[in-house]
Amino acid sequence: MIWRELWKYRAGVLGLVIVVAMSGIAIGAAYVSPHDPYEQDITARLKPPVWMAGANPKHLLGTDPVGRDILARIIYGSRISLATGAVSVIISALIGVLLGLIGGYYGRTLDSLITNLVNVMMAFPFMLLALTAVAVMGPSFRNMVIVLGITGWPIYTRVVRAETAQIKTLEFVVAARALGFSSLRVILRHVFPNLFNTVIVTSSLEVARMILMESILSFLGLGVQPPTPSWGGMLGEGRTYMLTHWWLATFPGIAIFITTLGINLLGDGLRDVFDPHQV
Amino acid sequence: MAIYIVKRLGEAVLVCFGISVITFLLLHVAGDPVRLLLSIEAKAEDAAILRQSLGLDQPLHVQYWIFLKDLVRLDFGKSLFIREPALSLVLERLPATVQLTIAGMVIALLIAIPLGVVAAIRRYSFLDNLCTALAVSGQAMPIFWLGLMLIILFAVKFHLLPASGRGTFLHLLMPAFTLGASLAPITMRMTRSKMLDILSADYIRTARAKGLHEQIVLFRHALRNASIPIVTILGLQFGRLLGGAIVTEAVFAWPGLGTLALSAIRNFDYPLAQACILTMAFIIVLANLGVDVLVGWLDPRIRFD
Predict the structure, then answer these.
(1) Domain B87-298's class?
(2) Which fold has domain A24-29+68-274?
(3) Which residue of B has its CA nearest to A266?
(4) pLDDT-derived band of residue A210, with 50, 70 and 90 as boundaries?
(5) What are phi and psi of A278, to 5 degrees?
(6) Contact A123 B280 (CB under 8 A)
């Protein structure tokens, strides 16, 4: 019975499997990884993956210019990606949902102020804003997460504001207000639970976008700094050797692709589960 | 229509003002340009002199006022390194970015609209599922990685296309495809879902019942109505498209606004970075305004909302 239910959402289940697997790899990196991601082996530099001629069987996906194991760096890189996605989404969802609730519930001046702020933020090339902010604050993992967190909120505000304004007019909210409940109680107990699903779906899709942003920032040298392994950073390093050693710039990209694909599938699946009449 | 345009124009001006405030705060409050420009060993006196010569010793609101006054006169100051007016540097690079963005958009539409229409007509067919799978994978694809893979394949392995730079039509192909591939998935999904909505509408049944040719029903009745939400989504995605252009330019060493902005940001050349950010934001505002007007013209109901 349950399997038939799940089969309906097979893409979402596949996404869930990928996300759980990636999280497991990130948490248990020390146990899964065949090598230390920082360990340099000068005698085995730029080794190709095992299935190619001249490979070193100890290094499954080959080694980088200083002889570090690529598979190990990809496994440890998952920590950076998933941590960035999770933390920056929590920050931006908190800001965005709060502003959306305030704007949608109270309306009037406060609402138009917030709406205009959203419009301004939406008109910025998000990428350029994040790049500049990270450069100005100094490129580091912490600053990157903060910047992604505080620039990513407008999408939540837009979604939450529209739904709040709609829910506010429904009878149960009007009834709660007529009973004399405080605004805070109405918002937290009556409005917010009804848009929780929307926030979860938006957040899950945003995690994927933030992971892509992290990889771009690190690729351009403005995110996580070497020698910390990050997928974007590895692609940036691999780019220099692209003409002769293609695998350096290939495998980290596959890792990014599979992870964001999994998260997107899960997010789409959650939307179908929460909102069945859209299917 | 005139009232509608004036209203949208007013909003656009407001947004531009907000953008100028955020850009100013970002570059003057979040970081100290003087500290970033000088080396760590620089003496305090030197820092003070530089601060004064750049006008950074003034109170913040005075600095912003000067910044805004210059902005209105389109004076973005001089680049700190190239010693030329920032605006002329930006304008020099702008055509390359515009070319790349438009080419990317055209490629995205050429891929997305036919696939979206076919997927909607043959709903749940193998082709439809294939299109959806393509769109889902496309959305998860890191755009710069796609660019790198294209270079490895077409420039390094097969020697078919130039790996970087701008010049001939061949130079444009890979960057434009990379950028287009980032926009195509969402456009395709939008086209498909709108076409599905429309194809089940009463007027389509009427058109078919009249005995109209299926092509006329599809293109004149269905696709034309689907074009409004498609145009809207393209407008909303424009900011993301320009963001993608920055990355694409970085991958292919395309001499546009993106590479200029990146080098300005890396060198802490803040007048130039400022000029790049404001120009891009202004283009996005302009594009959104254009889309609003276009949609208002296409669909009169929107004007009276």
Answers:
(1) mainly alpha
(2) MetI-like fold (1.10.3720)
(3) B136
(4) very high
(5) -85, -20
(6) no
